Amino acid sequence: MLFSSPAGRQDVCCVISGAAGLGIQTVEDMLARVIVDEGFCVFGSREYMSRVRGGNNSTELRVSSEPVDALIDRIDILIALSRNVRQNILERISPHTVILGDRDELKGELEDRGASFVHIPLSSLAKEAGGAIYSNSIAAGALLGVLGLGTEGAAAFYRDRFAGKDDVVTKNIAALEKGYGLGAPLGGEGGVLAGRPRSKGGKKTILNGSDAVALGAMAAGCNFVTAYPMSPATGVLSFFYRHAAEAGAVVEQTEDELAAINMAVGASYAGARPMVTTSGGGFALMAEGLSLAGVVEAPLVVHLAQRPGPATGMATRTEQADLELALHSGHGEFPRAVYAPGTMESAFRLTQEAFASALRFQTPAIVLTDQYFVNAFHNLDESALQWLEEPSLLPETGGDYRRYEDAPDGCSPMGVPGWGKGIVGADSHEHDEVGHVYEDFHLRTRMQDKRMRKLDGLTARAVPPRLFGPGNYRNLVVCWGSTLPILREALAGLDRDDTALLAFEQVWPLAPSSAAMLEKASFIAVAEGNSTGQFARLLRAEFGVKADKKILKYNGLQFSVEEASAMLAGALPAKGGDR
Fold this sequence. Notes:
Helix content is 36%, strand content 18%. It is α/β, with parallel strands linked by helices. The chain has an 8-stranded mixed sheet. It has a 7-stranded mixed sheet with strand order 9-8-10-11-13-12-18, sandwiched between helices. It has a 5-stranded mixed sheet with strand order 15-17-16-19-20, with helices on both faces.
């Protein structure tokens, strides 16, 4: 038996790597479904290169008896379908890793990495099965054999995925079984997972970040979605397109980002609950439209999936460098709310909250994710998804209706054109309470004050940060967005009873209760995925709290648990000592 796990380790980390076009995503979907149906937990994260053709893609599957939701560096099993394995994967290979690959295809590429190498004739077996594309099913079968999970679930997946294509189904199942026969002896009796605890809860939902945001929007009643496709935000558009009829939504792929934001503003004025999904470059183009939403007081949600910049940057990689863009985009001053979910459950709930805040305060709300988050997935119980209360229907307007009435909280009564007797005004210029344009300096001050008063209500409604670890902490690690599960696991592994994690999932406005939690700490380290410490800068501006240490990563990859653990260990004061 080649495979063994150190005592006490409950997870096995498997990576499948291969050239674009070999169908890695299909076998990723299949393997994840089989793993969960067999009673185990799974976390997955994929990497793909920004090329129309060529390049090397990969997927990581972390299999465990306990729930897992964070990226790790360790590779227990690496299956290489083709040559040119990316450098960042090569760097993760250790003597503990077992590599399965075709020696003839790889031409010695992975045989000098200090790991165990097992030759599997993927090329010849795939040719026998019907072509090179079937190497993915052979590899998937080999992994199922090593793990000891059988082929029945995989065969059922193929019959469902390729329904009506009997020849494709037959060939994939045959390839799968060939691979299983090669992999089963390598995993020992019963496979690597034999004897490990399994869940008795039956099937569980597998959810990725894109789908969690989209489902949250649907739960909030979103019925109008616009976008110009841009990685990594396109998954939300695709999900809505596939389920538009069920959601009762209009989905429009526009000619550019300007059209996307302006159509959404128009739809909001007409009474829809719109969302725009984009990435940093597209959001930059939307700045004028976002400002338009601010002055006409249009409820609008924007999903901004971050990737490294400047400009095109690294189109299929991850970063947290668009925080200040989200905070300050759009000319002039107007209130907004910005949410940065750290978990799939939070993405579902906070996207609903974004819609609720946008409608309540008649202002833009932004859901800030990143490439790592939208492409990562794990299983969870559907009961973990929290549904918020749906807003009431808007009342009909009366004959004396004034759209921009100077209300004490800044929130004028909403109205929809044609719903009632009132005229619903809207104009991009400064305007009076009815919506008529006037260049009046006293009016300007009055209406700007009215709009900005909404910020008080948004602040009072702000979602407080989540604290993990001891309540009597001396040291505080602060993070925001997608780094939450990674830093939570990393910090738990350090076993520091003097250190807690404070995770922000609403990054504007910041909950007032945050100040006391920050001031209580003697030492603060802020961890985030950018090069300048944008969130650390925000904390200092808002609360006067300066980070003692910034833990930053900005090479296009997410923190791993091991990396975060090492960086925290080097940053935190010695246990029981002065900083």
